Amino acid sequence: MSRIDMNIMIVGTGYVGLTTGVVLAKLGKEKKISLTSYCIDSIQEKTEMINAGTPPFYEQGLEVLLKEVIKEKRLLASTHIAEFINDVDIIFICVGTPSRDDGSMDLQFIQSASRDIGNALRSAKSKPVICVKSTVLPGTTRNVVLPIIEKHSGKKVNHDFGIMATPEFLREGNAIHDNLHPDRIILGEMNERHGRIVEDFYEKLLSGVPLLRMSIESAELVKYTSNALLAMKISFANEISRLAETIPGVDVTEVMKGVGLDERISSKFLNAGVGFGGSCFPKDVSALVDFTKRQDLVPHLLQSILDINETQPIHFVNLLMKNIPEDLEDLTISVLGLAFKPGTSDMRHARSLKIIEHLKQIKKVKTIKVHDPIAMETAREELSNLKIDVTFSKTIEECIQDSDACLIVTEWDVYKKILPKTYQELMRNPFVLDGRRIYDKNEFSSKIKYKAIGLGEISKK
Questions:
Q1: pLDDT tens-place string over residues 139-197
Q2: Helix runs in 275-419, H state only
């Protein structure tokens, strides 16, 4: 791609698609490149919101950038691929790949996007490179996406269009930063010429970022392997935390700090807690388990990652009940944090849902009060679907008022600023159970009971 103007199309305006489109439009301006991001979604309401400068979901820093690129006409949302197909050089497929009940991948959105692109290409004069950025298992781009596009377009790969796998490595809550400052770019190519086109595209916008070109299937597997390894570190830390709780004087946070100083290991993702959630780790590890089984292999380690994560919220609630005096009845439990992680309103596979669900099964628990700075409406819908009744508190103070225990479930900064004396003054029976290790145990006095994941003893009384 020798010219300095280029247009891209993003099919799918979720966390990956919209943040990618916005950031690439922003980078185009910074690099003095004429670049427009055409963001496509099948839901007209979403495209209207985007064109008005309002993101259809919360993501830190997104709204400011979206308004900027919309005002400068560097991004336009639409429901029609065919309207812009002749104007684009690269098409990124960024639709969701959710899990089915059995853990396998649901490809309906990938298939639909591929049909729509194929139909648009049928009468197009352009020869775009189509990049699958959605998380898909090895073989999906070549054996699912490609045949559908060829069938509906009547055209041939490598002659009329290119096909590649370009996985994303974004963290929800940090997607803008990760798009602006990626730690690597992975390009899975079928054709060397198309690989050079996309490499040149990224070199113009993100020069200096490590870039690897490889086969399509290798690129697809890189994404799953990365997420499985990170999820494994979390589950490993959580399993060690359970052991730490049985040994007086042991604090798993101190243990993992010591372990993480080994440069071969690093301290990242070794924080013990209530488990991982979100749109990536649970579904990606589940899909990799299912894929491995279909290769006639036994995914011992991968399955253990899921098993530990599934039982960690139950372990957390059991830890709560072990530290509640037996004579206390009609308990009021406060839950601080509902989103699966700070910086987002996403409730997909949120550990808070599992914790609340388990709390509801305990007869001694009469009232559950919840709070989250961002995800309250999303949580209300999720809990309603589960037919779970809780009390939604508008403020932190309202949530912990007259409660018998406060559970820290999401590590929002606003919760880190709560002083121990606030718990002491507002709670009926001051007991803080720290599921994300956001507090220094030594700051809690004898008047407040403090317990945390991976802490082998209750702090001084």
A1: 999 999 999 999 999 999 999 999 999 999 999 889 999 999 999 999 999 999 999 99
A2: 281-294, 300-322, 351-359, 376-385, 396-400, 413-416
Cα 59 to Cα 396: distance, rounded to the nearest angstrom = 22
Asked, for residue 217, whether it belongs to a domain, the answer is no
Parent domain of 424: 226-452
Asked whether residue 256 falls in the same domain as residue 178, the answer is no
Residue 418 lies in a domain: yes
Number of domains in the chain: 2
**Strand 185-189 vs strand 162-165: parallel, antiparallel, or unpaired?**
antiparallel
Q: By three-state DSSP, how is residue 446 classified?
A: coil
**For residue 274, which of 228, 334, 306, 317 has the smallest C-alpha distance?**
317
Residue 342 is part of a domain; what is its CATH number? 3.40.50.720
Q: Which of 281, 318, 320 is nearest to 431 (CA)?
A: 320
Query: Are the beta carbons of 368 and 335 closer than 8 angstroms?
Result: yes
Predicted TM-score of the model (pTM)? 0.92
Q: CB count, 10 Å around CB of 263?
A: 6
Report, as residue numbers or ranges, the catalytic residues. Answer: 280
